[in-house]
From TrEMBL:
<dbReference type="GO" id="GO:0008233">
    <property type="term" value="F:peptidase activity"/>
</dbReference>
<dbReference type="InterPro" id="IPR009003">
    <property type="entry name" value="Peptidase_S1_PA"/>
</dbReference>
<dbReference type="Pfam" id="PF13365">
    <property type="entry name" value="Trypsin_2"/>
</dbReference>
<keyword id="KW-0645">Protease</keyword>
<dbReference type="InterPro" id="IPR001940">
    <property type="entry name" value="Peptidase_S1C"/>
</dbReference>
<dbReference type="GO" id="GO:0006508">
    <property type="term" value="P:proteolysis"/>
</dbReference>
<keyword id="KW-0720">Serine protease</keyword>
<keyword id="KW-0378">Hydrolase</keyword>
<protein>
    <submittedName>
        <fullName>S1C family serine protease</fullName>
    </submittedName>
</protein>
Amino acid sequence: MKSKKWNGYARVKYPVSSSLHPFNFFVPIVERVRDGVVSIVTEDTHQTDNVEDLIRSLVSDQQPFASERSYGSGFLFHPKGYILTSEHVIGKSRTILVKLFNGRVFEAQRVLADRVRDYAVIKIDADCKLFPLPLGTSSDTKVGEWVISIGSPPVAIAANRLMRSCQKHPK
């Protein structure tokens, strides 16, 4: 490739030096949609059917019910706080927390879930501007087109801190 064509790329201010490559067109796409992508942390309590575990919990400080967390992502598709995610992310969880790109955290309510198709709709009541992403249709796509999956799963340690802080300071 002639240096004349590379000059156009060299003059552009890229956010990261690694994005200088002309075929690295994913960076601008991610930057355009990142405000609509959310992290999701859920917590569920599972009861045990094992009698020995139940007796052990009664005579010790051990809790009788194990708490399980799930992590995933989703995206805002409506300005009133509706989020599309996977059903396996929220499952039968009793607490669903959503973290926006700006760092704000909200508790979400389950609206709709379909285990067979593995999708779920949850809703947050946010007191800030939300940036929903447009939904596409399969009729607009063609076989062979590229697809990008953009998610925002949190690191487990940060998610555990988030759950503990929300339990200490409920709404």
